[in-house]
Design goal:
There is one protein chain. Strands 6-5-8-3-2-11-14-13 form an 8-stranded mixed beta sheet, with no helix packed on it. It is an alpha+beta fold. The chain folds into 5 domains: about 180 residues, tricorn interacting facor f3 domain (Immunoglobulin-like), CATH 2.60.40.1730; about 130 residues, Neutral Protease Domain 2 (Neutral Protease, domain 2, Orthogonal Bundle); about 90 residues, Immunoglobulin-like (Sandwich); about 150 residues, Alpha Horseshoe (Zincin-like fold), CATH 1.25.50; about 130 residues, Alpha Horseshoe (Zincin-like fold), CATH 1.25.50.10. The protein contains 27 helices and 30 strands. Helix 16 runs parallel beside helix 18. The protein is about 40% helix and about 20% strand. The chain binds (3S)-3,7-diaminoheptanoic acid and zinc ion.
Length: about 850
């Protein structure tokens, strides 16, 4: 079943829509949807409408009923011949749908008794017949009939009466941005006045009783609205902005025009129930969805191949927002960590694809780290190459030129070319080519001059053998042997496969602080001594490069240990310096103290052509932690005490920095005190950040029974907190216990596996425990495969996304590969396997060795 879609097949839609009118009569089992769509022909072609799983009751053109035998017997496309249609006409349909039976959480469905929708990418076709493609945009008027007390849709409210509400969205939009919510909801409300004086009513809608947990989301929304005005000159454009929290949601949130729908985990937070990480994500995702109003909604994508046009840009904008709200240095390091852990991993395996792919089977499988995170990095590089002022100029031109349009990456690049006069032909490879370039550096030093010889190479990726050279912004500085910066931050532009740059007039040989700010999404290959790394860790002026130097030093030590050699002594020594300064910048010290994870160690070993051994990696990391703890116990203990919270919990950069350092110290100390401090902290902590951190240490130490029972007793009724409880057990357990533990947890009545948050909580707890998931006996693979097979018929989208856990399996030894292959083949053989999952498993299996 391969119906592959190709970018090259895109053709303009031959009709435009002047208005879409929808009328819903909501009923859990039999919702009626009446549509009236005013079409106007703009070029030759039949009227093609998409529909899926609809019970069609009536169709008409200008009031004349259509013969229902026109309907496709199977398949999802209704074609009305052009020669039977006038130039302008109204298409009408009445269909019936069953929201209660909709477990896919795509289209109109029920979550905890409330009606809600998810239409991106192609969910609207599950609601009614429509040109369900992003380049067909229209203003919508929506009438909702329901006994539910709160009835919401896009745009502005027109009228409201018991049992009926009418909404009008004057901004033309594609169907994927349509939304409807009906339920027993309560709002917390506020107001915002835009920079030109437009008053906007803001509401965050939650279930009754959850109102006290929605305040941070509201504050984040207000900050986002202000920031987009200040940073990008973008103003909100409706009278109301509604956010709704729902419990059953396939992803994080959705930017529907004027009616954002959120996974409740990204809305609800109190100090007692949410961690610092949760707060940061809430602020970031509220910002992200809000920023889509301009980058996504006002300017949308011509087709789904262009997804990174809106997602890469909106991620870039939300990253800028978070850096401005919190700590820019910490945010950049977090983003680099995420990029490496998710996107580099994706790019190194069978699922590698360019930010703008040119074919797909199921578009929902392409909401990936490459489209999102690498898409954002590519924009960061553009900005680095042209500078801040030209970036702003280009963005102003983009908004000006393309407002109200559905655009392509070519349109985007053209804006930058026109704003700056640069030729970006070569730059475009970042969008069209897959793979992570490897940047190798060798140095020559003679007579006060340093020559840097760079070489770039990108390995072939599925379907792309040739990899032309890319434009790489290489940002660097030079640090003298005494720690002084002898060359401040400088941007080099590499355009050739091999290129050299020379720096003259240097007194003594400096150390290159390379790729400052992580100036390009590449891997770096260079020889460095441990002393040089330690020098950068101590003296680099660029926080990212400083952190990276320490991280590389740790990684080298861990890899040596995983190979059975000595290693890590230099890192243990260097970390002493970090601990001495830790109180001055706790967040940075915490980042330096966090050793590379097992997954990253495995990735790095595999990239050097060696087969990684998950058990050896696990022991190596454990032993290095133990040695660090022993070497620095007094300093760690002093920091643990010094970082005791002062005053009430505030989820800001400073407070979370202190808590992260405290927990980093705790992780080491727990190896020496048998988690005594962790137990005391679990008992006394007043916030979830410390609570969850302490619980993780108790589980790792194997003394968790009491804490887990108390945690459960306290939070039994809070689904979001119980999700943490489900995750942390397989995640933090010793690898040989994790799967057995997850199996027990899966038997519990509250393992409500049809809820994506709960499913992911437990299953990702296993897949994120590297040594457990990759257990040599295949038990991790089998456990995950069994559950994916169970979920696929219920919710294909979430199942398919989670298949990516298997994308790294071919880098392990033959025994593990055989087990993984057998598990994947079992999934592939499941009768009735969804297109979503089938595509993922087929792509992964295609690379099996
Ligand atoms: N645009 C949505 C993601 C939709 C995913 C569809 N499978 C959320 C976001 O990126 O903001
Ligand atoms: Zn987005």
């Amino acid at each position: 079943m391969t119906d592959t879609q190709y970018l090259s097949d895109w053709r303009p839609y031959p009709y435009e829509i002047t208005e879409t009118r929808l009328e819903f009569r909501l009923d859990p089992r039999a919702t009626r949807v009446r549509s009236q769509i005013d079409f106007h022909r703009i070029s030759e072609g039949n009227l093609v409408l998409d529909g899926a799983g609809l019970k069609t009751l009536a169709l008409a053109i200008d009031g004349t009923p259509l013969d229902l035998s026109l309907l496709p017997e199977s398949g999802e496309t209704l074609v009305i011949p052009a020669d039977s249609l006038p130039e302008s006409f109204t298409f009408e349909a009445e269909v019936e749908i069953d929201p209660e039976a909709n477990t896919s959480l795509e289209g109109l469905y029920l979550s905890g008794g409330m009606f809600c929708t998810q239409c991106e990418a192609e969910g609207f076709r599950h609601i009614t017949w429509y040109p369900d493609r992003p380049d067909v945009m229209a203003p919508f008027t929506v009438t909702v009939h329901s006994e539910m007390p709160v009835l919401l849709s896009n745009g502005n409210p027109v009228s409201e009466a018991p049992g009926k509400a009418v909404w009008h969205d004057p901004w033309k939009k594609p169907a994927y941005l349509f939304a409807l919510v009906a339920g027993d909801l309560r709002a917390i409300s506020d107001k915002f006045t835009t920079m030109s004086g437009r008053p906007v009513d803001l509401n965050v809608w939650v279930r009754p009783g959850d109102e006290p947990r929605a305040g941070y989301a509201m504050e984040s929304l207000i900050r986002s609205m202000k920031w987009d005005e200040e940073a990008y000159g973008r103003e909100y454009d409706l009278d109301v902005f509604n956010i709704v929290a729902v419990d059953d949601f396939n992803m994080g949130a959705m930017e529907n025009k004027g009616l954002n729908i959120f996974n409740s985990k990204l809305v609800l937070a109190t100090a007692e129930t949410a961690t610092d990480g949760d707060y940061e994500r809430i602020e970031g995702v509220i910002g992200h969805e809000y920023f889509h109003n301009w980058t996504g909604n006002r300017i949308t994508c011509r087709d789904w191949f262009q997804l990174c046009l809106k997602e890469g840009l909106t991620v870039f904008r939300d990253q800028q927002f978070t850096s401005d709200m919190r700590s820019a240095a910490v945010k950049r390091i977090h983003d680099v960590q995420t990029l490496r852990a998710r996107q580099f991993r994706e790019d190194a395996g069978p699922l590698s694809h360019p930010p703008r792919p040119d074919h797909y089977q199921e578009i929902n499988n392409f909401y990936t780290a490459t489209v999102y995170e690498k898409g954002a990095e590519v924009i960061g590089m553009l900005k680095r190459l042209i500078g801040d002022a030209d970036y702003r100029k280009a963005l102003d031109l983009y908004f000006d030129r393309h407002d109200g349009q559905a655009c392509t990456i070519e349109d985007w690049i053209k804006v930058f070319e026109d704003a700056t006069g640069r030729d970006l032909t070569q730059f475009k490879h970042w969008y069209t080519d897959a793979g992570t370039p490897r940047l190798a550096l060798t140095e020559e030093w003679s007579g006060g001059s340093l020559t840097l010889n760079f070489r770039q190479a990108t390995k072939p990726t599925p379907g792309q053998a040739e990899k032309p050279a890319r434009v790489i912004p290489i940002v660097l500085g030079l640090i003298g042997p005494n720690g002084d910066e002898v060359l401040p931050t400088t941007v080099l532009e590499m355009t050739e496969a091999e290129q050299s740059f020379r720096f003259e007039g240097l007194g003594a040989r400096p150390v290159v602080s390379l790729l400052r700010g992580f100036s390009a999404p590449v891997t770096v290959a260079r020889e460095m001594t441990a002393d040089e790394q330690a020098l950068l860790l101590a003296h680099d002026t660029d926080p990212y490069a400083r952190w990276q130097a320490g991280h590389d030093l740790a990684l080298d030590g861990l890899i040596a240990r995983a190979k059975g050699q000595e290693g890590g002594a230099e890192f243990i020594r260097a970390i002493g310096g970090v601990l001495d300064d830790a109180e001055a910048d706790p967040a940075f010290a915490a980042l330096c103290l966090a050793l590379p994870g097992e997954e990253e160690i495995a990735t790095t070993i595999a990239a050097s052509g060696v087969v990684p051994d998950p058990d050896a990696i696990h022991s190596a990391r454990r032993s290095l932690m133990q040695d660090i703890a022993q070497a620095h116990e007094p300093a760690l203990a002093a920091l643990y005490d010094a970082m005791t919270p002062i005053g009430p919990y505030v989820p800001d950069a400073e407070g979370s920095g202190r808590r992260s350092l405290r927990l980093a110290a705790l992780a080491y100390l727990s190896r020496l005190d048998n988690a005594e401090r962790a137990e005391a902290l679990f008992d006394s902590a007043g916030n979830m950040t410390e609570r969850e951190g302490a619980l993780g240490q108790l589980i790792a130490a194997g003394r968790d029974a009491d804490a887990l029972a108390r945690f459960e007793a306290e939070f039994r009724d809070n689904r979001l907190v119980m999700d943490k409880w489900f995750t942390v057990q397989p995640l933090r357990s010793e690898s040989h216990l994790a799967v057995a533990r997850a199996k027990d947890l899966a038997k519990r009545p509250d393992f409500d596996w049809k809820n994506p948050n709960r499913f992911r909580a437990l299953i990702a707890g296993v897949t994120s425990n590297h040594a457990a998931f990759h257990a040599a006996d295949g038990s991790g693979y089998d456990f995950v495969a069994d559950w994916l097979m169970k979920l696929d018929p219920v919710n294909a989208q979430t199942t398919a996304r989670m298949c990516s856990a298997f994308e790294t399996v071919w880098r392990y030894d033959a025994t593990r590969r055989a087990k993984a292959k057998a598990a994947l083949e079992r999934i592939a053989a499941l009768p009735g396997l969804s297109r979503n999952t089938s595509e993922m498993v087929t792509r992964i299996l295609a690379a099996s060795t």
